[in-house]
Amino acid sequence: MSGQTESGESRKAPISGDRSLGAFTSRLLVVVVIAALAAALWRIINVLVLLFGAILLAIGLHAAARGLARRTGVREALALAGVAVAGLAAFGAALWLFGSVMAVQLSDVLKVAPAGFKLVMDQLTGNPYGRQFLDQVRGINVAGATGWATSVGGGAVGSITHALGYTVIALFMAIYLAAQPDLYRHLCIRLVPPAHRLKAEHLFDAIGNILERWLVGQLVVMCTIGSLTGIGLWLLGIEAAFALGLMGGLLCFIPFVGAILAAVPATLVALTQGPGDAALVILMYAGVHFVEGNFITPLVQAEATSLPPVLALLSTVSFGLLFGPLGVVLAAPLTLLLIVTLEVLYVQQGLGDPPEDPLSASGVRSREDGTEPLA
Asked: What phi, psi does 374 have (nearest 5°)?
C-alpha cells in the first residue's frame, strides 16, 4: 500500500508542477501583451490626442444639432447636416470675403515681427544692463537672434499648414462621431464589465456635459477677445489689426498662455511703428483682458465652467511636454476630463464622499448612488 501511495504522489507532483508552470506562463504572456499594447499606444499617442480633439469637436457639433432640432422639430440627423453645411458655408463665405485681406495681413505680420524683434535686440545691446543680460544667455547675438526670428516666421507657414491638415482630419472624424454617437458610446461601454456599465454610462454623461459647457464658454470668450482686440488695434492704427485680432481670439482657446502668445506679435508689429505704439498696444491688451477677466468670464462661468489659473498653467506645461503643440491646445479639456473622472470614480465611488463640484460651476450632481452625470 505504501508503495502504491508513493507512486501516486510521484505521478501527481509533475502534474502540479506543470499547472504552476502553465499559470506562470499565462501571466507572463498577459504582462507582455499589456506592455506591448502600452508601447504601441505610446507610439501613436499623438493620434489618440487628435482623436480626443475630434471627440471635442463632435460634442460641440452634437450640442448645436440638438439645440437646432429642439427649436425646429426636425430630426437630429438633419439638424447635424444643417449645422455642418451652415458652418462650412460660413467658413467659405468668410474666406471669400476676407481671405485675401487676412492672407496679406498675416504675411505682413510674418515680415514685420522679425524687424520688431531686431529693434528689441538693438535696444538691449545699446544698454549696459541689456548687454549684461545678453551675455548671460549662452550663444545669443543680434544677428543670430534676428535670423532665428526670421526662420521662425518662415516656419510658421509650415506649422499653419500642418495645423490646417490636422484640423480637417479632426473635423471629418468629428462629423462621423456626431452623426452616430450612440454607436461609438455603445462600443466603449461594451469593453466595461457588466457590473460597472451603469457607472461608465454616468461617467460618459458627466464628461460630455462638462466639455460641452466648457466649449460654450470658450466660444464666447474667443469671439469677445478677438473682436475687442481687432477693433482696439484698428483704432490705434496698428498694421494688420484684424489678422492680429483673429490670432488673439483663436489663441484664447489656450487659457492664460494664449493671451501672452497673442500679445507678442502685436507688440512686435507695433514696435516697428514706434515705442509709443508698442506701449499703447500693451495697455490695450491689458485692458481687454481686464474686461474679460472681471466681467465676461464671471458671466460665462455662471453657466459654463473654467479651470483655476494655477491648474490651467500647470496643465498647459505638462501636456505640452507630453504631447507637444497639440497637447498645449487641448490641455484644458484634457484636464477637465481627468478631474471629472477622478471626481466620479475615485472621490464619489471609491471614497464614498457626497457629490461636490470639483470646479466652479462644473455642475457635478449625483443620483441616489452618487454617480449622476454633470447637470
From this structure: -60, 135
